[in-house]
Amino acid sequence: MTAEAAIEKVLKTYAECMSESDPAKARAAFHPSAHIVGYLEDGLHDMTVDEFAGFVAEQPAADSAPRFDVLSIRIAGATAGVIVRCDYLGLTFLDTLSLIETDGAWSIYNKLFHVEGPA
Q: Whole-model pTM above 0.90?
């Protein structure tokens, strides 16, 4: 499998974790040391993978697959930068994801999110 195909598989798991409210898929998509960071209306949020997985589990599953557009993928060796626009919880997010390949597997190492507005 190419690096791009492996990254796209991780991105699919990430999209499914949110649309299905599946904490196991959140843990599968993210590196155990990852952080999920960004601003919501109530201020800065900085979550560990376990905190994010718990947040995902508390949300209702989507009735249908929401928008999840991969805008760019840039691979540099065993690292990659990905920009994603997705709808989640009635909002449109622009996510900047850093991925890393460790032990032959790709995972999201950091997620910076920005709320663009209502979905």
A: yes
pLDDT at 73 over 90: yes
At 115, phi and psi to the nearest 5? -85, 120
Q: Contact, 62 vs 19, CB < 8 A?
A: yes
Q: Is 5 exposed, middle or buried (0-12, 13-18, 19+ CB in 10 A)?
A: exposed
78 touches 107 (CB < 8 A): no
Q: What b/e sequence results for 65-94 when a residue is b if at least 16 CB atoms lie within 10 Å of its CB, and e otherwise?
A: ebebebeebebeeeebebebebbbeeebbb
